[in-house]
UniProtKB/TrEMBL annotation, chain A:
This is Sodium:solute symporter. Gene3D superfamilies: Sodium/glucose cotransporter (1.20.1730.10). GO terms for molecular function: transmembrane transporter activity. InterPro entries: Na/Glc_symporter_sf (IPR038377), Na/solute_symporter (IPR001734), Sodium:Solute_Symporter (IPR050277). The keyword Membrane applies. It comes from Alicyclobacillus acidoterrestris (strain ATCC 49025 / DSM 3922 / CIP 106132 / NCIMB 13137 / GD3B). Belongs to the sodium:solute symporter (SSF) (TC 2.A.21) family. It is found in: Membrane. PANTHER family: MONOCARBOXYLIC ACID PERMEASE (PTHR48086:SF8), SODIUM/PROLINE SYMPORTER-RELATED (PTHR48086).
UniProtKB/TrEMBL annotation, chain B:
It comes from Alicyclobacillus acidoterrestris (strain ATCC 49025 / DSM 3922 / CIP 106132 / NCIMB 13137 / GD3B). It comes from the Bacteria. InterPro entries: DUF3311. It holds the Pfam family DUF3311. This is DUF3311 domain-containing protein.
């Protein structure tokens, strides 16, 4: 048992819990309305939005899963860097339009937007269900990250994880989106300190970057299958599609949109897209921790343990405890945002749209609060039911699903040409094909090879599914338009998407 | 009339945002060990450099289009 690390860890965890409960009093609004509980009243400015959206990116994904892949497979893991590079220019182009139309019409979720754009609650249902299911493996990834640091400190069993999640659930219930927003600020300061110390101290101890990379390369070559320090050319397509697919998925993930919708203006969003790459730089450095673990000779078959073991080996116990607290809190913040986003979707687009049309605002907010608990249970199903070689696969599985909502959520911002039935069928085909590809690997990998005239191209299954989805959507739109099939009533007008909405 | 023309021109600036995609999504451009920088292989420092370039590009486009 690592007592020093554990004491420091618990102290910071308690501190953050107190912050989470106090958050309810911050910029007070009536937490009985879903716009207040779930979007904090759309009042966050540049700085808070920066921390909040950053909190969506700096997660257990960053600190545990990406370095774990680096530790096991090498250069391929670095796709997280181009992913978080291209995501912001793409966001910059698309998100202001979505923000404007949602603000104008009071949409709380992406599915609200689809419902309004097409007057179609079934297409909205497809978007909502996809969002809810897709965040579950992503929340599961956060659980895996927390488990990695907790067990590194010598605590065995499931109960520490359960305690952490009960705490999370309670302050999500009482404070809504204000809790993760406020905690994100504390968490980021802790993470920046950890990262800076780690990337300065460890390479010095190892005798410089050149030697660190050389030793890591030797270690990677002994892995089965062997890892590579430099990306081999046959992995180029996989690397690029993972980066692009993750970036597009990030845009349609409900928790990202929750962060964006709570911003107070278009300008806040645009400015953030230039400022958020600061997180990418941190992420790139953190990814290298996987190589550092190899270089210092950490041996573990559970790759998630690579970074925690590195910290325990290279740092005094109190600092390892501090870093572990940063990681665990870094898992709690996105988990909270994700469960809030999923419950907003359930309440607005399933519960209200299909079961309880006349529900009051207070009743809606209460339903959302309960569902935020159920979503966390769904995450447990993923982590227990589909064990992955690398935790990062959990995020990629969610990505395969959520990517299939790209045509309905991105393309329709620019044109009213697409037919709602075509979008629905395209979505279904994409989902089924994506699950088929994932299943064909025994639910173990999200990489799928397509054979085409004797050539074989391996790429991220999410992208293959999205391509098929787009083809089906375009072809069927042509058919339905030619047949003059009714395309619903559009609540929005062209100017709703612009700066003067 | 003048305002419309100005708006058209500022649209072109958005194309700058595609540069980071071109720079980072074609791995054969940068998947090599050399040239090293401070002992860091090209593959790694090239992509980290694009974090900064991409941020600067986005900042420029923001400054030009912030009223839209």
């Amino acid at each position: 048992m690592q007592w020093t690390a554990l004491s420091v860890f618990i102290a910071f965890f308690v501190l953050v819990t107190v912050v989470g409960f106090l958050a309810a009093r911050w910029r007070r609004g009536s937490l009985d309305s879903i716009e207040e509980w779930g979007l904090a009243g759309r009042r966050f400015g540049t700085l808070v939005t920066w921390f909040l959206v950053g909190g969506d990116f700096y997660t257990a994904y960053t600190f545990i899963a990406v370095p774990a892949l680096m530790y096991g497979a090498g250069a391929l893991a670095f796709y997280a860097v181009p992913y978080t590079i291209v995501v912001y220019p793409i966001f910059f182009l698309i998100l202001p339009r979505l923000w404007s139309v949602c603000k104008k019409h009071g949409y709380v979720t992406a599915a609200d937007y689809v419902a309004g754009r097409f007057g179609d609650r079934w297409l909205a249902l497809a978007v909502a269900v996809t969002g809810i299911v897709a965040v579950m493996p992503y929340i599961a990834l956060q659980l895996a990250g927390m488990q990695a640091v907790i067990s590194a400190m010598g605590l065995q069993g499931e109960w520490p994880l359960i305690v952490a999640f009960v705490v999370l659930a309670l302050y999500t219930l009482t404070s809504g989106l204000r809790a993760p927003a406020l905690i994100a600020i504390v968490k980021d300061l802790m993470i920046y300190i950890t990262v800076i110390v780690a990337v300065v101290v460890i390479p010095i101890k190892l005798g410089g970057f050149h030697r660190m990379f050389a030793v890591a390369q030797t270690a990677l070559a002994t892995h089965n299958p062997p890892g590579a320090l430099i990306l081999p050319n046959q992995s180029a397509t996989l690397y690029a599609t993972l980066a692009l697919g993750s970036a597009l998925a990030a845009y349609v993930y409900p928790h990202t949109l929750t962060g964006i919708f709570s911003a107070d203006s278009r300008r806040t969003i645009k400015k953030n897209m230039a400022l958020l790459p600061a997180y990418t730089f941190g992420l790139g450095l953190i990814t290298l921790l996987g190589l550092m673990a190899l270089a210092v000779g950490i041996h573990t078959s559970n790759t998630n343990q690579a970074v925690p073991l590195l910290f325990l080996k290279e740092f005094p116990g109190w600092f390892a405890g501090f870093a572990f607290a940063a990681i665990a809190i870094g898992a709690l913040v996105p988990a909270a945002i994700m469960s809030i986003a999923a419950s907003n979707l359930f309440t607005r687009n399933i519960y209200r749209a299909f079961f309880h049309k006349q529900s009051s605002e207070k009743h809606e907010a209460n339903v959302a609060k309960v569902v935020s608990l159920l979503v966390k249970v769904g995450a447990l199903v993923f982590i227990l039911g589909f064990p992955q070689q690398y935790a990062i696969s959990l995020q990629q599985v969610g990505g395969i699903l959520i990517l299939q909502t790209v045509p309905a959520l991105v393309f329709t911002l620019y044109t009213g040409w697409f037919h709602r039935r075509a979008l629905l069928i395209g979505w279904l085909v994409g989902i089924l094909y994506g699950i088929y590809m994932w299943g064909s690997t025994g639910y173990k990998s999200t990489t799928y090879a397509i054979h085409w005239f004797g050539a074989s191209v391996s790429a991220y299954a999410g992208i293959w599914a999205l391509i098929l989805n787009i083809v089906v959507t375009v072809v069927l739109t042509l058919v339905f338009r030619a047949a003059k099939v009714y395309n619903g009533v559009d609540q929005t007008i062209a100017s709703d998407y612009g700066p003067n909405a | 009339m003048n305002q419309v023309g100005e708006k058209r021109r500022s649209r072109w600036w958005y194309l700058l945002l595609l540069l980071p995609l071109v720079g980072t999504l074609i791995p054969p451009i940068y998947s090599s060990e050399t040239p090293e920088l401070w002992g860091i292989p090209f593959f790694y420092w090239y992509q980290m450099l694009w974090v900064i370039i991409s941020s600067v590009i986005t900042l420029i486009v923001y400054a030009i289009t912030k009223n839209e």
